Amino acid sequence: MADKKKDTATKKASKKDATPKATLPPSGFRVAVREILRSKSALTALIIIILILLLTFGGSLFLNRAQITEMNIVDAYYGWGQGGHLLGTDDGGRDILKLLIMGGRNSIMIGISVTVITEIVGLVVGLVSGYYGGVVDVIIMRIVDFIQILPQMPIIIVLTTVIPNYNAVTLVFLIAMFGWTTTARYYRSFILSQRDRDYVLASKTSGSSNFQIMFREVLPNITSMIIIDVVLTIAGNIGIETSLSYLGYGLPTTTPSLGTLIGFADDPVNVINRPWLWLPATILLLVISLSINYVGRALQRAGDARQREN
Predict the structure, then answer these.
(1) Pick from 181, 187, 185: which is nearest to 221 by CA?
(2) For residue range 159-190, what is the model confidence (pLDDT) as tens digits?
(3) What does the sequence similarity comment in the record state about its family (predicted)?
């Protein structure tokens, strides 16, 4: 009898072990890493972005800003590698490589700063609009529509000319003043698809407040979308700053920027005879934009895969 009981217990234990165990889907971070490692182009782009950040932010730590912008007419228009200047000098004798490092850092910093502001404002507005819906959604979206139909670039150009003590911080807020609307509409579309899900209805039934549901329940479910939007928005904001600086309405002339360096291409003589003035900044901007785009595509695939696995 004892042997039979042991055999029965052994069989039950083996059946329990054979029963497949439920596994949780991988985290959003693991899915993103997996997608980037799968794509050689995305992985290469990520490495390039890291190297650019090390060059611009790390290299700027060893540079003196006052010396970089200091004029030295004697060294004006040195070509590639002449006079100890690897990328030559501009019309004021300033080293192009140093201007490129500082300009790249400034443009990237502005792109990141604008993105932080627009993401925070747009996320909150999109959450409120999509979650409550109805009259609240209609009012908020009409405000968003009104701001989006305004001519962004002309308004920023006018404001840069009339605002006293104009600086980089002012430029960040001017760009963010319009940029949050696109972000708000983007997040609103995802919140509308989440507001009637079972977990939201269950939270309402359990007595959770709307604030808790929005930021504790709904927000974690769109984190992959947030990451994707942040990455792609940074590239767009860098482009906006560069365009404004190229036109002469971005950063002050005393502050290096990719746009001010590319602005040397306005002169046909520089385009043909002095390519070192504008070509390095143009290549750097192109590389940054393409690299962020490839990484953003990989993150988008990761977000889609995460949604399917959930």
Answers:
(1) 187
(2) 888 888 788 888 899 999 998 999 999 999 88
(3) Belongs to the binding-protein-dependent transport system permease family.
